[in-house]
Amino acid sequence: MIAKLGSVLILILVLSGCADVKTPTAGYALTHPLSTKTMVASGTSKGEVLEKWGEPSDIIEAGYDDMGIEKEEWIYDAWFPNTPLDHRQFSRSKKIFFTGDYATGYEDIEDGEATDE
Asked: For residues 34-62, b (16+ Cβ closer than 10 Å) or e, as one string?
């Protein structure tokens, strides 16, 4: 009797823990790949970005901040423009902002902004 009660209690705890799991919509799943190993967030080092994304298409020297730390913008050109999936620079060109050795932000580059030197 106690074994059955214990099994039921464990089952209830396991199932209640799964209640918070949300299934993504098809549109979300297509545009947001599941891998977090290639994500770049504020604080990511230049070395980590190089390891995850490879060499940038272009590096723009953006001057210095108020404390004299060098700022750069790394450009990654899109591999396959006009596709709905966006993973790293798969369909959209990206610009990653660095202050010193660490990323401080990133943004998608609109079609007309991409650098073609």
From this structure: eeeeeebeeebebeebeeebeebbeeeee
Two tokens, residue 78: 């899109």
Task: Give the type of residue at 29.
Answer: A
Which residues make Cβ contacts (< 8 Å) with residue 5, sequence separation at least 6?
none
**Which residue(s) pair with 67 in the sheet?**
none
Instruction: Give the CATH fold of the 34-113 domain.
Output: Beta-lactamase Inhibitory Protein; Chain:B, domain 1 (3.30.1450)
Cα-flanking dihedrals φ and ψ of residue 92, to 5°? -130, 135
DSSP string, 76-88: E--SSTT-S--ST
Tokens of 7: 């099994």
- 4: which 2 tokens? 């059955």
Specify which residues 96 forms β-bridges with. Answer: 74, 106
Q: Dump pLDDT digits (tens) for 35-48.
A: 445 678 889 999 99
Query: What pLDDT is stored for residue 112 in this prediction?
Result: 52
**Helical (H) or strand (E) element with 28:** helix 26-31
